[in-house]
Predict the structure.
Amino acid sequence: MRQEKNKERFLEKVNSPADLKNLSLPELDVLAGEIRQRIIETVSRTGGHLAPSLGVVELTLALHYVFDTPRDKILWDVGHQAYAHKLITGRRDRFHTLRQYGGLSGFPKREESPFDTINTGHSSTSLSAGLGISTAKSLKGERDKIIAVIGDGSMTAGMAFEGLNQAGETEKDLIVVLNDNAMSIAPNVGAFSSFLSRKMTGKRFVSVKKELESFIRSLPGVGENILNLVRKSEDSLITFFTPGMLFEAFKFKYIGPINGHRLDLLIETFKNISHLRGPVLLHVLTVKGKGYAPAEKDPAHFHGVGSFEIATGTSQKDSQKAVPSYTSIFGQTMVDLGQRNEQVFAITAAMPEGTGLTQFAKMFPERFLDVGIAEQHAVTFAAGLALEGFRPVVAIYSTFLQRAYDQVIHDVCLPNLPVIFAIDRGGLVGEDGPTHHGHFDITYLRSLPNMTFMAPKDENELRHMLFSALLSKGPVAIRYPRGKGVGVPLEKEYREIPFGKAELLKKGKDLLLVALGSMVQPALEASARLENDGISAGVVNCRFVKPLDPRIGEWAGETGFVLVVEEGIRQGGLGGAVLELLNDHRVEGVRVRRVGLPDKFVEQGPTALLRKKYGLDAEGILKEAKNLLKE
């Protein structure tokens, strides 16, 4: 599959979308192949969203070929499919830095290029943003085209339908491209629909249609009745042969489905619809992972993948998997607890593999639900289960749980329901960058009444926390990081962890290190190094952000110096909770420093590098501890 750069005939000459317009259709087809090879080569080294980007190469070329970008605006929903877009919009020479520290983002980013209309990373935002841009353009008297490219998966989110509803109601100009790589449509129906749609949007057809409508309307007495009959016939014809009934109900002009890998069809259709006014939806059928056999065979695995061998598709990190990940330990524990307790019900939002619930889903299909990209629904659905005596476990990445914050408050915490939130990817996640770091969850959850919030120091403690959460009568959140566990042995028997009880791992006379979750091991390492310098530093495994163990105040008072370490933003985080505890318990004479992430959106990069940069490793903790003692 490898193709040398010096064999690229066209990609090296494309410095902007304007260069595409000088190429013939056969040359564009060759360019599509070159782009695929460049994406495969790059992602095999950097990791990334391979299958989504391979599936939209022709679609990307057709959009930039027909429309005048960046004056016309393309909005990529989620944005994980925008690699071809980056390659042809002036970033080809930097593409090898994709997802690397200081390099190109894996998602559209306004700071990178004027061709990136919005910053994305979470799904289902393109329609609302596109409608807002279109409305603003209309108010300014501008006629630029706004095109939102959204996948069928993103269409499962309620926000997408809110955008559709408003766009249809306002009748503003908006082209929605539905990139469908999952719906099953019979070939003969699809082909006929494609023919109908392309011909029914051509300039000649639209012009003739308008003239015919004017003539019929002018007929005295019967014109309007005849016109209504013709319209009904046309509507029934379109919706009978296409799956467009839903979108027509939203007052969109529905077109498609068409083959998303035929450049000639795509270009012809985009040219035809470019002159239409009002909301238009083009339904495009694509193959996820197109052009790379392993990705076509297993698009779920290659949706977001680490570095791999191109020839086989095998991960280059497979040999390094001796220590299981927190995600896999969570999944194994869920299966075990599901066998013991028939009331355990697992829920995920389009991430069964990413959250480790694949095996649970196979073993207990009646007690598992993937709701799609619908986190709000997932949380309130869990509340309904809890009302009837089930023990729902909602497994969602930290960054995506943000989307359901109101439901966590209103539907779970307010009625004090026993819903468990398994918050994967808590803290820094690495190369996916600022849209995916999970560094706000401590702040946005610890303020909620009735919520118990904890984080394990290792994978063994994660098992016990999950077991303990199932014994709770109220909502519980468990936060754990991305990546491998510490490597500790797993105890066969579960034990209940008393809620609100921290663990004093090491006593100290000079300083107290209060650490949470992933920061416990670095704190222990820093304590050992401080000991070599004659400093006695105690270490507390905080375990609970809420309720916070009041003994921390007692232990702090014994040393007079406290360093709080957390892999989350400092504002409203664990450090703030410790300061509140000291104040509430009137513990005086204690100097406190907080080590955490600053008031900013953290950039992309390897997790180890980012932890080092922000002082969240043993060296950083050691440095802050010494600085604190000097005060």
Remarks:
- The chain has three domains: 69-185+243-289, 326-479, 503-630.
